[in-house]
């Protein structure tokens, strides 16, 4: 298992699990590796590495597809009640008119920065994704393949996180 953990990390790095952490994908990949160990037969004409790679990919894709299903939406977007209470307590202290105005300006500045960074296709993908459309639905609406949609979402995440990082650095100055 240790020998092929790097392969699992490599495969998991290219995917995104809604409502999950990167470690969740690695765990799913390790389950795929375990299944490869369990089911590998030496009499077949395939190397273990190739077989393990296939099993890991299938396990990861199954996990991603499961997380994209509408029936899991409540689980993937839920927040702990304890966390909500803490947020409400902090929010009541920060709800001065001045803070509200500053927050609105910051959000508008971030939205504008994100708007300028995204390509027209990325904007369409993001809009559909935020409306709750899955990868397959987005790909059929836009006439693109699923991998193109996945790549666009990965680029969007990078660009948005860059804008957020730059925004927080700007706010600290």
Concise structural overview:
The protein has 173 residues and is mostly helical. It is 77% helix and 0% strand. The model has no long low-confidence stretch (mean pLDDT 79).
- Total number of helical segments? 9
CATH architecture of the largest domain: Orthogonal Bundle
Largest sheet: none
Q: What is the helix content?
A: over 70%
Kindly provide the radius of gyration, computed on alpha-carbon positions and rounded to a whole number of angstroms.
21 Å
Strand content: under 5%
Count of structural domains: 2
SSE ordering: HHHHHHHHH
Kindly report how far apart the N and C termini lie.
Answer: 47 Å
**Low-confidence runs of at least 5 consecutive residues:** none
The top-level CATH class of the largest domain is Mainly Alpha
Q: Name the average pLDDT.
A: 79
How is the CATH topology of the largest domain named? Answer: Arc Repressor Mutant, subunit A
Strand tally is 0
- Structural class, from helix and strand content? mainly alpha
The coarse overall form would be elongated
The CATH H-level superfamily of the largest domain is Winged helix-like DNA-binding domain superfamily/Winged helix DNA-binding domain
């Amino acid at each position: 298992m240790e020998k092929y953990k790097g392969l699992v990390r490599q495969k998991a790095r290219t995917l995104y699990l809604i409502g999950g952490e990167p470690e969740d994908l690695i765990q799913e990949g390790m389950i795929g590796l375990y299944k490869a160990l369990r089911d590998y037969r030496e009499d077949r004409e395939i190397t273990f590495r190739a077989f393990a790679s296939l099993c890991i990919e299938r396990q990861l894709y199954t996990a991603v597809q499961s997380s994209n299903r509408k029936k899991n939406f409540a689980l993937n977007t839920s927040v702990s009640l304890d966390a909500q209470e803490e947020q409400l307590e902090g929010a009541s202290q920060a709800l001065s008119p001045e803070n509200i105005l500053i927050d609105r300006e910051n959000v508008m500045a971030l939205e504008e920065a994100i708007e300028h960074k995204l390509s027209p296709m990325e904007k369409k993908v993001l809009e559909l994704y935020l409306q709750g459309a899955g990868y397959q639905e987005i790909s059929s609406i836009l006439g693109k393949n699923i991998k193109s949609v996945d790549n666009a979402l990965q680029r969007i995440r990078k660009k948005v996180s860059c804008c957020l990082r730059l925004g927080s650095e700007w706010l600290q100055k």
